[in-house]
Amino acid sequence: MTDTKKTNYRWVVVVLLFFATTINYLDRQVIGFLKPELEKQFSWTETDYSHIVMGFSAAYALGLLAFGGIIDKIGTKLGYTISLIVWSIAAMLHAIVKSTFGFVAVRAALGLGEAGNFPAAIKVVAEWFPKKERALATGIFNSGANIGAVLAPAMVPWILGIYGWQMAFIITGAIGFIWLIFWWIFYEIPAKHKKINVAEFDHIHSDIEAPITANAPEEKVKWGQLFGIRQTWVFVVGKFLTDPMWYFFLFWLPSYFSSTFNLDLKKPTLPLILIYTATTIGSIGGGYLSSWFIKRGMPIFKARKTAMLIFALCVVPIFAARYATNIWQAVGLISLAAAAHQAWSANIFTTASDIFPKRAVSSVVGIGGMAGSVGGIAFPFFIGWILDSAKAAGNVTGGYNILFIICACAYLLAWLIMHLLTPRMKVVKL
Predict the structure, then answer these.
(1) What is the pLDDT of residues 127-184, one digit of tens each?
(2) I want to staple 169 with a disulfide (CB 3.0 to 4.6 A). Which of 48, 95, 176, 242 is the partner?
(3) What share of the chain is helix, strand, coil (3-state, %, to 5)?
(4) Would you kindly state where each structural domain of the chain is located, as residue ranges?
(5) Highest mean pLDDT: which of 29-33, 74-78, 351-355, 380-384?
(6) Number of H helices, E strands in the chain
(7) How far apart are CA 131 and CA 205, in angstroms?
(8) DSSP symbols for 197-243
C-alpha cells in the first residue's frame, strides 16, 4: 500500500459480488421457467413442485446456518469458492435427473451450495466498506439477484426451444466456473490486497473507534452466543416473515402469468423481464435511500428503519392484483412489490453489519438467512395446497389472490415486530 490519492478498489469488489449473486439467482431461477415443460415430462402436481421448492429451501436453511460459521472461520475468499463450486455442480446435475425425487435431491444440493453466497457477500461488504457506504454497496451487489432473474426469462426459453431442458441446466450451471477464475485473480481482504493504498484502507475503517492495522488479530466469536442477543432476533424475524414472499415471486410468478394470462413461457417473456428489472432499481435505490438519509444527518439506525417502513408500505398495493383486468396492470402492481422487497432486503442485510462486529457478521447473516429459509419451507407447502385446491375448484386465480394478500401484509408486520423488539437499536459488543 502506498500513500497516494485514495484508490477505489472496493467498488471492483462489489462488481465481483454482483456477478456472483447474478449467477446464484440465475441457477435457482431456471426451474421456474422450465416448470410447464417438466410438469409434462414428470406429471407434476402443484404439490409435487412445492415439495421440490421445499427441498431447496430446507437445504438452503441448513446451508446458511453452516456457511455463516464456516465463512467467519475460514474467510471470505475460500468460503465463497467452496459455495460456488458446490452450487454450480448441483445446478448442472439437474440435467441427468430422471424422477421427481431426483429433482428434490439436486435442488437440495443446489440450496446447500447457494447458501454461502449472502453470508460471504455481506461479510465482504463489512470488510471493504464503512457503514455509511454499506447499504449502497449491498444494494448494488444484491441487484445481481434481479439481473439473474431477468436473464432467466431471456435465456431459458431460448435454450429450451433449441437444445432442450437438460442443456438449460448445464449451460447456466457452468457459468459459475468462469466467475471463479476472476474471484481468485482479483479478490483478497483489504489488509492483504496490493491494489489499495493507505488512504482507502483508512477510509474503509473510518467509522471504527479502535485503530485497525493490517496485522491485527481477529478474535473468533462463539456462535451459540449470538442466539442470546436481542439484535440477532430482530434480523431473524425480519427474514422469516419476508423471505418467503421472495420465494413466491421467484418460483411461482412464471406459472401465475401462464395460467392467468396465458403467457407462453417457451418464448422470452417481457412481463417477467420488466418485473425483475424493476427489482434491480429497487435494490440499488433502496440502498441509496438509507445512505442518503445518513448523509443528510439522520442516525444510522433511524435511517435504516425509516427506509424499511417506506418499502413495507410500497408492498401493500399488491393486494389489488386480484382486480387486474389485463396483464400490464398486474405487472405494474407486482413490479412495485418486488422492487420494494429488494429495497427492503438491501437494508435488512446492512443492519446486520451495522449492529454486529465484522467477525460475527457471516454467522448472524447465516442465522437470519436460515430463518428466512424456514419460512420458505413452510410457505411453498401452503402455496401448493392453496393452488391445488383452487384448481380443483376451477378457480386458479383465486388461489393467487390469497397469496397476494399475504404478501401485502407481511412486510408491515415484520417491521412492527422488529421495531418492538429494539425500539432503539444499539451496536453489539461481543
Answers:
(1) 999 888 888 888 888 888 777 767 777 787 788 778 888 888 898 889 999 999 999 9
(2) 95
(3) 80, 0, 20
(4) 10-421
(5) 74-78
(6) 15, 0
(7) 9
(8) -HHHHHHHTTT-SS---TT---PPP-GGGGGG-HHHHHHHHHHHHHH
Between CA 428 and CA 430 the distance in angstroms is 6
Count of positions (residues) in the chain:
430
pLDDT digits (tens, 9 = 90+) for 86-129: 999 999 999 888 888 888 899 999 999 998 898 899 889 989 99
Give tens-digit pLDDT for 257-271: 887 887 776 666 788
CATH of 10-421, one of 1.10.287.180, 1.20.1250.20, 3.30.420.40, 2.40.160.20: 1.20.1250.20
Given a contact cutoff of 8 angstroms between Cβ atoms, the answer to whether 119 and 323 are in contact is no
- Give residue 324's identity as a one-letter amino acid code: A
Least Cα distance to 135 among 341, 346, 282, 280 occurs for 346
Which grid cell is 224?
A: 451459540
Set of cell numbers at residue 198: 493507505
**Contact between residue 138 and residue 15 where contact means Cβ atoms under 8 Å apart:** no
Chain-centroid distance of CA 422 in Å reads: 24
Cα–Cα distance, 384 to 51 (Å, whole number): 8
194 in the Ramachandran plot: left (φ > 0), alpha (ψ -120 to 50) or beta?
alpha
C-alpha cell at position 125: 461488504
What is the C-alpha to C-alpha distance for residues 4 and 198, in angstroms, rounded to an integer? Answer: 8
Q: What secondary structure letter does DSSP report for 130?
A: -
Q: Which residue in this structure is represented by grid cell 425483475?
A: 276
Cell digits of residue 139: 444494494
pLDDT for the residue 211 = 41
Contacts of 374 (CB under 8 A, 6+ apart): 57, 61, 240
